[in-house]
Amino acid sequence: QVTLKESGPVLVKPTETLTLTCTVSGFSLSDKRLGVSWIRQAPGAALQWLAHIFSNDDKSYNPSLRGRLTISKDTSKSQVVLTMTNMDPVDTATYFCARAEQWMMEYYGMDVWGQGTTVTVSS
Amino acid sequence: EIVLTQSPGTLSLSPGESATLSCRASQIIVSNYFAWYQQKPGQAPRLLIYGASSRATGIPDRFSGSGSGTDFTLTITRLEPEDFAVYYCQQYGRSLWTFGQGTKVEIK
After folding, report:
1. Interface probe, candidates B47, B55, B90, chain A, greatest A C-beta count within 10 A
2. Using CB atoms, which residue from B47, B96, B99 is nearest to A111?
3. Fewer beta carbons under 10 A from the terminal one: N or C of chain A?
4. What is the dihedral of CA A98, A103, A106, A112, to 10 degrees?
5. Contact assessment for residue A41 and residue A94, using Cβ atoms and an 8 Å cutoff
6. A:B CB pairs within 8 Å
7. Distance CA A55, CA B23 (A)
8. Is 90 exceeded by the pLDDT of residue A10?
């Protein structure tokens, strides 16, 4: 069974750095067809893609947040970590990680999602 | 960056009716890289359609996707009570992903 589970602080202060961990099971982060994205959703708002890490360790970031985001993975621990610097109250949201499958010229979507973790930014 | 614009914002329908949701891209999208998701309150999104028209595993055939270029459509025939939710389109291109702003399908 494929699962992803997010973990991290519930509350962070403005200007602090947020570190979130996505622990996956049922698949390997070295599988060439698979990568992991982070997506967030502010209360009552739409989904916003944040960052993605590919099986070959290539990384991609939302241009609007580039500079604040760093994504990395530890294949041996089956974990993907997202850090976001200089947190602001507008970053209050539920943060999801999701598995994305792509191979050659095909993209099979984000087929498995974690339950999400809610982060509030407040002093 | 490709912007996805979904319409309408809200669709009010009765169970048994059909729903047609639209997603328009600011640039031409490769159809292979287009997907639809369903999200219910308090839940993570669920993949419905990938490659613009292929149903994900376990998705009923009342859900269908179509479109190419800049215009894509999700059609839900014979709405079931569990289909009332928010639907998002998504595109992937040049190692970047974007989502539309969502269409809420609500019970009339």
Report:
1. B47
2. B47
3. N
4. -20
5. yes
6. 69
7. 30
8. yes
pLDDT tens for B48-63 read 999 999 999 999 999 9
How far is the alpha carbon of A52 from chain B, nearest alpha carbon, in Å? 8
Q: How many CB atoms lie within 10 A of CB B32?
A: 17
Mean pLDDT of B26-47: 96
CB contact under 8 A, B35 and A48: no
pLDDT per residue as tens digits for the range A11-67: 999 999 999 999 999 999 999 999 999 999 999 999 999 999 999 999 999 999 979
Strands B34-39 and B10-13, sheet pairing:
unpaired
Residue of A nearest to B6 (CA): A46
User: Which residues of A fall within a CB distance of 8 Å from B47?
Assistant: 109-111
pLDDT band for position B64 (cuts 50, 70, 90): very high
Rounded to a whole number of angstroms, the distance from the CA of B31 to the nearest CA of chain A is 9
Whether A105 shows a pLDDT value over 90: the answer reads no
Please list every residue in chain A whose beta carbon sits closer than 8 Å to the beta carbon of residue B92. Answer: 100, 102, 107
Nearest-angstrom CA–CA distance, A82 and A114 = 14
Gap between the Cα atoms of B92 and A61, Å rounded: 12
Beta strand ranges found along A1-123 (DSSP E): 3-7, 11-12, 18-25, 34-41, 47-53, 59-61, 69-74, 79-84, 93-103, 106-113, 117-121
